[in-house]
């Protein structure tokens, strides 16, 4: 078990480390998890994909090219090829030899850091049949109670809800859905009203919007909260963005700079 970090002050807005502490270590790797723990993050956001032979690996891009020394599509390669790639040298020589983690490796780390929450993004389309074994593994490991599952793909969100009634399921949102007209009830943008309908249709409990949407639609967080959804924007890395998010009353912030955000929140007057 990893050593427990010192008790941290309780803050109203939770800090979620985007792909681990990706400002200090290569994203979506065990060193980035270690760095997020040291940074005082409340949770770590990671990306899950399936290799061609059905192994769950932790990597964001569809291709290996950007974050490893190999090339090729993750979904077209077997796990042996993906796990042979060096996922650290691109970031800094000190991380040479770092590997793409499997779900097994993530769970092993999570079991050793019982205070850390998880925000697990299922990349692209997953069926109920394909998500079920992942959720079962999280349950069996004891990690499920501190894991939130999410996706941009609405079909995947539905699959997560169907296979994981005991899990918290959230939906990632890049843009508001289309809707007839501009204003709906009480002057609320009809697209926000449609978003609320979509979230209910797919069984999401939270909405995790692109941070720009908070600036473009000042009502967004209030309407979502009033409808019973949590709000966790991504990926906010600058104080001016944090100010807007906190003033909007968001529940958590996803950031590449968890240590800096944590210090900023702790220094902010109550």
TrEMBL record:
The lineage of its organism: Bacteria, Bacillati, Actinomycetota, Actinomycetes, Micrococcales. One of its GO terms (biological process) is lipid metabolic process. GO terms for molecular function: phosphoric diester hydrolase activity. It comes from Subtercola vilae. InterPro entries: GP_PDE_dom, PLC-like_Pdiesterase_TIM-brl. This is Glycerophosphodiester phosphodiesterase. Pfam families: GDPD. Residues 13-265 form the GP-PDE domain.
